[in-house]
Amino acid sequence: MQTVRQTGWMVVRQLRNLARQPIWVVMMIIQPMIWLILYGQLLKNAGLQGHSQGAGTYIEFLAPGIICMNAFFGGMWSGMGMITDLDRKVIDRFLAAPASRLAIVLSQVVRAGITAVIQTLILLLVGLALGVRIHGGVLGWLIVFAAAFLLASAFAGFSNGLALIFRRPESMIATANMVGLPLMFLSSILLTFALMPGWIKAVSRYNPVNWGVNAARNAVVYGNAWGATGEFLLFLLAAMAVTSLFATWCFRSYQRSI
Amino acid sequence: MSRLEAMDAIVAEDLHKRYKTVQALDGVSFAVREGEVFGLLGPNGAGKSTTVRVLTTLTRPDSGRATVAGEDVAAHPDRVRNKIGYVAQDSGVDWDATGRENLLLQGRIHRMTGQPLHARVAELLELVGLADAADRVARTYSGGMKRRLDIAIGLVHKPQVLFLDEPTTGLDPEARTAMWVEVERLAKDLNLTILLTTHYLEEADRLAERVAIVSKGKIVVEGTPEELKRGLEGESVSVELQETNGRVADAERIVAGISGSVHIEGNVVRARVPNGAQAIPVILGALDDAGIEVAAVTTARPSLDDVYLHYTGRAFATEDEAGG
Nearest residue on chain B to A95, judged by CA atoms? Predict the structure, then answer.
């Protein structure tokens, strides 16, 4: 119970601190819109090739992809918050007090998820203005939010683990990029499965980014296949649990090293 | 106060800690009485911060035992954490939160809630003189203000023992003096046990009732500043030479022949002698015979610096520069 309460207060702290950086807030809102509009134009004539019947416009296909890309990158960068807290010795201050160790790690993961949900809401609203319709109805909306939250959280666990291992932004960013960019291109964020070479198609089944994309796209574009969608969300939940454990393990190893 | 009347608030017994190639602690033992301000004095890298990190449960020692406020740091770290306040060397302030928000979160971590928490926070902001700046983000605070906020953060839950790791490092002289007044006042008003680490001799001399000098992971001597100074017989004589090069080594040899205990800092030759008034003419005569010109001579009762020099064989200032 203390862990839950402390996680809550630490999430409040992080979100409040982020909200105090006007540039960050503006970027957080503008950047995903730029992706949506830019890719929407760039791949308008190519993206849907080979796509099954019943799909709407490319922008409708793309919107859940961009939502997931955004959530995924947001999670990937979230370890920066941990590095700042380590540098400023905020973490040590918490550790010399009876702070829940789990809350310190989980608050970063949950914060990344909440940030992704806020961005997702903005993206969905922009999408609506651009003609995107959410065919899954209310459940569809909820699934998109869930996919964004879980995807961001899952990669936040990974990112915070890296942050605790490297404790330097340069190393963390380099590693996040090295892992992150391939995962993005090994997914159907931008293009349909039909356009992928066979091996990428095979690999993409094991790509957590793609689990999120599949769930969100089902909810937006088709509004059916709930069973498969639920499975993807469960996979993501499992991924989030695994990376959170990884981050917690990295935290223990940080504690042992000081 | 005798050992029988007061309980020991901190006991460290034979603490060892090794970081890869560095033996940070090499058998640190000392005890701090309840209500006492105790200073760990030594250069950077001597093991002061590691000692504090062990006592605040942040670092596990490789061997040895420690209790703080009656609780074993290894067996019951959580109980220790409830009873201590820790002000780290590099602060621990969340820059993007206001002073008040920093304190509220720390209070919540200590399971404080609601009105009592808000009242305590307001009281502390008043105590450390940050009431007017309470709702500004800490990023806008001066170094001294951040440090005062750090201390308030360490005091939220009314700890029994407060650890101040290098409380004035990085502060300008004015803020440093203000911080000394602050710490003196806290020690007096709150009857806290305070363990202070510092690499400023002056700071230890002024704030600490007892001092332990730390060098290379060991405590080399312990006592009140007065005891330590009295323990050194005689006086210290400093001879400043006119020229800085060439003859300094000659001067060292000559003075060493007279006093036996000599140390060089730049163009100053320092010696400890039983009686300054008798030694100075002898030293000056010998230097004059050798044709070495003297710019100034001073004599002084032993300072903590002399104590440090005596017990570690190194001058405080020089080791500090070399340390890391």
Answer: B58
Closest-approach residue (CA) in chain B for A6: B109
Q: Which of B60, B82, B86 is facing A93, going by the closest CB pair?
A: B86
Residue B214: both structure tokens together: 């730390």
Hey, where are the domains in chain A?
Answer: 2-257
CA distance B59 to chain A (A): 6
Domain ranges of chain B: 8-227, 233-301
CB contact under 8 A, A89 and B91: yes
Q: Hey, which CATH number is domain B233-301, 3.55.40.20, 3.40.630.30, 3.40.1170.60, 3.30.70.980? A: 3.30.70.980
> Which chain A positions have a beta carbon within 8 Å of B92's beta carbon?
88-90, 92-93
- Are residues A13 and B110, on separate chains, in Cβ contact within 8 Å? no
Instruction: With beta carbons under 8 A apart, name residues in chain A contacting B57.
Output: 95-96
Q: Which residue type, as a one-letter code, is found at position A32?
A: P
The predicted pLDDT at position B5 comes to: 46
In this predicted structure, the answer to whether residue B320 has a pLDDT above a threshold of 60 is: no
What DSSP designation does B20 have? T
Provide the pLDDT for residue A44. 79
Share of chain B above pLDDT 70, in %: 93
Smallest CA–CA distance, residue B302 to chain A, in Å, is 38
Residue B313, number of CB atoms within 10 A of its CB: 12
Note whether A93 contacts B82, CB cutoff 8 Å. Answer: no
Task: Give me the residue from A5, A99, A258 closest to B59, CB to CB.
Answer: A258
pTM of the predicted structure, to 2 decimals: 0.85
Provide ipTM, 2 decimals.
0.90
**B235-241 and B294-300 strand pairing:** antiparallel
- CATH number for B8-227 (one of 3.40.50.2300, 3.30.160.20, 3.40.50.460, 3.40.50.300): it is 3.40.50.300
**B322 has pLDDT over 60:** no
Does B321 score more than 50 pLDDT? no
CA distances from A74 to A19, A66, A181, B33, B96 (A): 15, 12, 13, 51, 20
Mean pLDDT over residues B193-210, rounded?
91
Confidence band for B250, pLDDT divided at 50, 70 and 90: confident
Question: How many residue pairs bridge chain A and chain B with CB atoms within 8 Å of each other?
Answer: 72
Q: CB contact, 8 Å: A97 with chain B?
A: yes
Q: What integer best gives the mean pLDDT of chain B?
A: 88
Contact B198, B39 (CB under 8 A): yes
* Interface contact flag, B94 A88, Cβ < 8 Å: yes
pLDDT given for residue A47 in this prediction: 64
Convert B97-152 into a string of H (helix), E (strand) and C (coil): CEHHHHHHHHHHHCCCCHHHHHHHHHHHHHHCCCHHHCCCEHHHCCHHHHHHHHHH
pLDDT digits (tens, 9 = 90+) for A218-227: 999 988 889 9
Q: B258 is written with which tokens?
A: 């007279």
